[in-house]
Amino acid sequence: MILNKKFYRHKTLRVAKNLIGKYLVREIDGKKLRVKIVETEAYLGKSDKASHAFKNKRTDRTKYLYRCGGTVYIYLIYGIYYCLNIVTSSVYKPHSVFIRAAEPIEGIKEMKQFRKKNINDLKELTNGPSKLCQSLKLDKTFNGKKVYNPDSELVIMSSENVEKNYKINKSPRINIDYAREDKDKKWRFYLSNSEFCSN
DNA sequence: CTACAGATGGCCT
DNA sequence: GGCCATCTGTAGG
């Protein structure tokens, strides 16, 4: 089942936690690529010094954060890599959940092709935000698309028949030392005991 | 195994 | 001009 629009219209910390264990499904050339989300981070907009939308900053890049929950926000980082976010909350709050890592489930052959490196170790496909974008062939053209829309090439699905009692840990977010007093907030969530988390 | 420098360009001041 | 929600190759223990 595709998660509906309402799923994203809640407090961002809750959505970040609830996204752990869900399936991210990418359709490309009739092939289905499926991964299980194992690591996320919450970015709380106006009041969060680590957020691109701190103080409600609105630019050509960040405008997608002001769309409805379930909208895709992808940005270029370090000139070469992409990072995936899912917008949450209401259109008045530019919040999002950053997807940091996942476990490859289906379409592994295709993911290996999209990553340029020769990968032997499965977790090297998706154990980082930009590795994930490479494996799923995601880029800025996905900006503004809706992950609750069945016609999208990128959707998020609930995981029925998968163990429901996930143990989820919290920690500070990664690589946001510039965020001063917000850098120690425990807004990163990850599936405990998963080898597929980032390092 | 860990440590670190370099890649590379859009974004924002 | 400086920074950046990253990754990789290489150097060294």
Automatic annotation (TrEMBL):
The chain crosses the membrane at residues 64-82. One of its GO terms (biological process) is base-excision repair. It is an enzyme of class 3 (hydrolase). InterPro entries: Formyl_transferase-like_C_sf, MPG, MPG_sf. CDD domains: AAG (cd00540). Its EC number is 3.2.2.-. Gene3D superfamilies: Methylpurine-DNA glycosylase (MPG). Keywords: DNA damage, DNA repair, Hydrolase, Membrane, Transmembrane, Transmembrane helix. One of its GO terms (molecular function) is alkylbase DNA N-glycosylase activity. Pfam families: Pur_DNA_glyco. Belongs to the DNA glycosylase MPG family. PANTHER family: DNA-3-METHYLADENINE GLYCOSYLASE. This is Putative 3-methyladenine DNA glycosylase. It comes from Candidatus Mcinerneyibacterium aminivorans.
